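CORE FACILITY INTAKE
Project code: CF-77B
Contact: R.S. (postdoc)
Sample description: multi-component assembly, two entities in total
Requested service: structural model of the whole complex
Turnaround: standard
Below are the sequence entries exactly as provided by the requester. Do not edit them.
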Amino acid sequence: AQSVTQPDIHITVSEGASLELRCNYSYGATPYLFWYVQSPGQGLQLLLKYFSGDTLVQGIKGFEAEFKRSQSSFNLRKPSVHWSDAAEYFCAVISYGQNFVFGPGTRLSVLP
Amino acid sequence: EAGVAQSPRYKIIEKRQSVAFWCNPISGHATLYWYQQILGQGPKLLIQFQNNGVVDDSQLPKDRFSAERLKGVDSTLKIQPAKLEDSAVYLCASSVAGNRYNEQFFGPGTRLTVL
């Protein structure tokens, strides 16, 4: 069965520190991969997506993610975190003929 | 460009009562989705519309949930009767016509509490 895992439920980093949020998926076919961010009381906003081509994709707000087929991973990174990045982050996956599947989310807290 | 609108933002009801949520997608977006997001989990797709037709409702609990999109624009999601486990945020999203790989734009959600 298709699944998406985000091993870290909650991560705390200091402002200015680097960030990496993990995402692993289990799919039979090549999936399309997304990262969304959800701020409190807000809807989900797309940060970036990977369909094909260059495995390192750039997104909004200074985020990037790298697709590693051998590891079935699509980790999200940011070199320097800002206090406004505190939010819930969701990895999502879809493949042909399947529904959109979201991971359980990782909550990011940022220390001043 | 106006985003996806949802109302109400919050709703508290007793179990066995009925409730309805409303969604107005981004103008011109033919595809509309309803998701259920239980606390601590990612959103789960309930139903997908293409214009006013249902594309996928395989995860919609049809014994108590119903949804419609009569004129291919606004949509309503109804729960009747509600159960405690229906407490969640209900998210509406829309995308341009086409396949599911198009970017989905999400509304702020309706937080439902069933007592």
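Facility notes:
- The radius of gyration of chain A is 13 Å.
- The interface with chain B takes residues 4, 32, 36, 41-46, 49, 51, 90, 92, 94, 99-105 of chain A (CB under 8 Å).
Invoice: internal transfer
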